[in-house]
Amino acid sequence: MTAKKSTSEKMAVAARRLLDREGVEAVTMRRVAGEVGVTAMSVYRHYPNRAGLLNALADEGFADLAGRLHGAKLSGGTEKRLEKLMNIFLDHALENPRLFELMFLEPREGARQFPQDFRAGRSPTANPTAEVLKEGMAAGVLREDDVWEIVFEMGALLQGLIMLYLGGRMAMSQAEFRDFCRRSFERYMHGIRK
User: Fold this and answer.
1) Mind telling me which Gene3D superfamilies this protein's record contains (predicted)?
2) Which domain holds residue 186?
3) Number of domains in the chain
4) pLDDT tier at 109 (50, 70, 90 boundaries)?
5) How far apart, in whole angstroms, are the C-alpha atoms of residue 105 and residue 102?
6) Whole-number pLDDT of residue 5
């Protein structure tokens, strides 16, 4: 028997459905209430405001992505492991384009900031990449450099490409886009190899 969803869970599902269907602008307290069949004021019992609701959606997205990254079976050399992490990130973004926009493009209160939050290890989605880079540097495969700057640069490269692709600025199939990302990754790796 399936457990009945709480009102808060129903609101989260409705908000995510609106986000996926229509984008972040569609996620309002009134629209979520209408989807669930409650008054707009009752949404405020579960979320302090619209920003709180959007933060909850983004946090859920980050938790899902972090779970995928940390659960990945990484094998092979440094570049193979980094490429695997890149593909997990790509999968998540392409499967959830509107959520990706909310997570990485929308200004949000409490969003992690570079460099302090990253250097303190507070980015569960960046930490796996940092660990692989540190191992690569320790093994002499990669040049010694600032790990967190490299993590951020690699993320910016990939996120920028994803943004352009989702925005219709890259006239290519998803398979072609993935190949383009892989080639961009290889060019970046060429610059940090020892």
Assistant:
1) Tetracycline Repressor, domain 2
2) 57-192
3) 2
4) confident
5) 6
6) 80
Tokens of 145: 């450099």
Cα–Cα nearest to 150, from 177, 129, 178: 129
Residue 100 has pLDDT above 70, yes or no: yes
Do 164 and 120 lie in a common domain?
yes
How would residue 4 be classed by pLDDT, with cut points 50, 70 and 90?
confident
142: left (phi over 0), alpha (psi -120 to 50) or beta: beta
Question: Domain holding 34: CATH number?
Answer: 1.10.10.60
Cα separation, 18 vs 22, whole angstroms: 6
Residue 178 pLDDT exceeds 70: yes
Q: Which of 158, 12, 144 is nearest to 85 (CA)?
A: 158
In angstroms, the Cα distances linking 97 to 44, 48, 105, 187 are 27, 26, 11, 25
Q: Are residues 70 and 33 in the same domain?
A: no
Same domain for 178 and 93, yes or no, is yes
The residue out of 29, 47, 65 marking a domain boundary is 47
* Claim to verify: residue 179 and residue 134 sit in the same structural domain: yes
Q: What pLDDT digit, counting tens, does each position of 18-47 carry? A: 999 999 999 999 999 999 999 999 999 999
